[in-house]
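Entry 12.
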Amino acid sequence: MSTQPLLQIQDLHARVADTEILRGVDLTVERGEIAALMGPNGSGKSTLANVLMGNATYEVTAGRILFNGEDVTAAPTNDRANLGMFLAFQYPEEIPGVSVVNFLRAALSNRTGINYTVLELRLKVMDAMRELGMESSFADRYLNEGFSGGERKRNEVLQMAVLEPELAIMDETDSGLDIDALRIVADGVNKLTGPERGFLIITHYQRLLDYITPDVVHIFMHGRVLTSGGPELAVRLEEEGYEAFRSGAPV
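Predicted 3D structure (tokens):
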């Protein structure tokens, strides 16, 4: 088992056009760790998620992203995914005409370099769906087409179960979910935790953390991490709001 951190973000700065959004992010995710990143709207949380996965809309102007000790700051998105990085989107897009099982077959073949047959992949998907408590008919539906918000988020968890990334970045997965869907998604995440996998869970609210217990909580405002602590930090945030942390934010 490697002893180096799974993810290291070092003094990361990024912008869109002439607007600087990330202003010196320092953050580490260890193997086997669930890290929560909490911040208000407009703080740059989703920008960080997109920059970590190499979204070309954003320009990195300083700093580094290390994954398993490898500098991936300039690596294209596909390379990062193949290395074991995964982003669960806040608003997953529809892909008409592409079934869930065929999408996963293509993604897993790229990830592993193994050309799975449809049958092999279907068996793997069905095993994962049973483990996650999902209906088998889900596999043949077109990706996110006609899916409810909860189904879209459960599909993201299914993708994680099949692709088995080492790092799962979850960008506001709790957004728009009712309590039942939230519990299902959280249960799926909890089943996927392990000693070699890390999670970076990005959220506004503490409610998701009622079902997923983080090892560390980072408070994120104005494009950087202001403070970090244990799960009690999320409880304090729920009680006091972000205003309690603004004194540490840059002007």
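Annotation: The first helix runs from residue 45 to 52. The mean pLDDT is 88.
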